[in-house]
C-alpha cells in the first residue's frame, strides 16, 4: 500500500561541471559511464542499489560481465547500508534525496492544511529551479513571469528615451548613431542566504563525494566564515575547490575549518 506522503523523485539536480571534472568518469569508457549514470539514477529513485552484482546488472540493463568490469572503478562511492547489509548506499546522494523528499512532503502537508500559494516545484525539490539545467543562482537572473519582463522592458525604454508603443501611432524614429547608450540595468545581487547554501552544498560534495569522509553538511557559521574569507566571490570559491582536488587531492583532516584557512591564504 502506498504511503499517504510517498514521493516519486522524477528529477534531481545534476552538475555538468562536476561530472566532466570527475576522475571516476575519466577512468570509464562510454559504456561504463552509462552504467554509472544508471546506478546513480537508481540511488535517487530507490535510495539504494543491490549488493549482488548480477541483480544490479539486470536493474541497469547490462550484462554481468560489463558490470564486473566497471564495478572496481565505481565501488568506492558506495557503502553497505547499516540496516540492510544486502544493499549499498551513497551517503551524499541520500543526503540530497532526503532533502527533496522532505520538501515534497512538507508541500503536500501545506496543501492539505491550507496556506499561502506556493510556486510549484519542478521535481528537483526546490521551487523556482528550472529543469533545463539551471541552478537556483543562475535561475535568479532568468525572468519567470511576464510581468517582470514587462517592467524590465519599460525601465529600459524610459532610460533610452523611447516612448511606449501605441496602436495606430506612426513608427518611431530610431535615435541617431552618435546618441549616448541607454543606461545599463544593474545585475540582481544574490542574497547572502543563498550564497551560504551554495557554499554548504559544495563543501558537502567535496568531503563526501570526493574524500568519502561521511560528514554532515557544513553549518551556517562555517559557511559565513568562508564567505568572508573569499570576499563573497563564489567563482573564486568553486575554482579554488577544483584546484585543491585536481592538483593535490587535498582532504580536510578534522573539520570544515580547514577550508577557511586554505581560502584565506589563497585570496
Mind explaining what this structure looks like?
The chain is mainly alpha-helical. The protein has 12 helices and 3 strands, in the order αααβααββααααααα. The protein has helices at 16-21, 23-27, 30-46, 53-59, 64-74, 91-113, 136-139, 146-160, 192-210, 220-229, 234-248, 257-266, and strands spanning 49-50, 79-80, 87-89. A 3-stranded antiparallel β-sheet has the order 1-3-2. α9 (192-210) crosses α10 (220-229) and α10 packs parallel to α12 (257-266). The longest helix is centred in the middle third of the chain and has 23 residues, at 91-113.
Measured distance between first and last alpha carbons? 55 Å
Mean pLDDT: 75
Number of domains: 2
Taken as a percent bin, the fraction of beta residues is: under 5%
Number of strands: 3
* Shape, per Cα inertia axes: globular
Low-confidence stretches: 1-5, 121-149
> How many H/I helical runs?
12
What strand line-up does the widest sheet have? 1-3-2
Structural class: mainly alpha
Characterize the main sheet: 3 strands, antiparallel
Radius of gyration, in angstroms, nearest whole number: 24 Å
- Relative helix content: 40-55%
Q: Could you spell the SSE succession in H and E letters?
A: HHHEHHEEHHHHHHH
Amino acid at each position: 500500500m502506498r504511503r499517504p506522503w510517498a514521493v516519486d523523485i522524477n528529477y534531481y539536480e545534476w552538475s555538468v561541471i562536476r561530472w566532466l571534472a570527475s576522475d571516476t568518469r575519466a577512468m570509464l569508457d562510454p559504456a561504463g559511464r552509462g552504467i554509472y549514470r544508471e546506478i546513480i539514477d537508481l540511488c535517487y529513485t530507490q535510495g539504494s542499489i543491490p549488493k549482488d552484482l548480477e541483480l544490479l546488472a539486470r536493474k541497469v540493463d547490462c550484462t554481468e560481465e560489463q558490470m564486473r568490469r566497471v564495478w572496481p572503478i565505481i565501488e568506492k562511492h558506495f557503502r553497505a547500508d547499516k540496516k540492510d547489509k544486502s544493499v549499498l548506499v551513497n551517503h551524499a546522494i541520500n543526503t540530497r534525496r532526503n532533502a527533496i523528499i522532505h520538501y515534497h512532503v512538507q508541500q503536500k502537508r501545506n496543501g492539505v492544511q491550507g496556506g499561502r500559494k506556493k510556486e510549484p516545484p519542478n521535481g528537483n525539490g526546490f521551487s523556482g529551479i528550472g529543469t533545463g539545467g539551471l541552478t537556483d543562482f543562475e535561475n535568479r537572473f532568468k525572468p519567470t513571469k511576464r510581468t517582470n519582463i514587462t517592467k524590465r522592458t519599460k525601465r529600459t525604454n524610459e532610460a533610452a528615451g523611447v516612448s511606449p508603443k501605441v496602436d495606430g501611432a506612426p513608427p518611431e524614429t530610431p535615435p541617431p548613431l552618435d546618441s549616448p547608450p541607454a543606461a545599463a540595468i544593474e545585475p540582481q545581487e544574490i542574497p547572502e542566504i543563498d550564497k551560504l547554501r551554495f557554499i554548504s552544498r559544495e563543501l558537502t560534495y567535496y568531503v563526501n563525494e570526493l574524500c568519502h569522509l561521511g560528514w554532515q553538511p557544513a553549518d551556517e557559521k562555517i559557511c559565513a566564515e568562508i564567505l568572508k574569507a573569499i570576499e563573497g566571490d563564489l567563482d573564486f570559491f568553486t575554482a579554488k575547490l577544483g584546484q585543491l582536488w585536481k592538483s593535490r587531492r587535498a582532504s580536510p583532516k578534522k573539520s570544515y575549518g580547514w577550508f577557511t584557512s586554505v581560502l584565506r591564504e589563497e585570496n
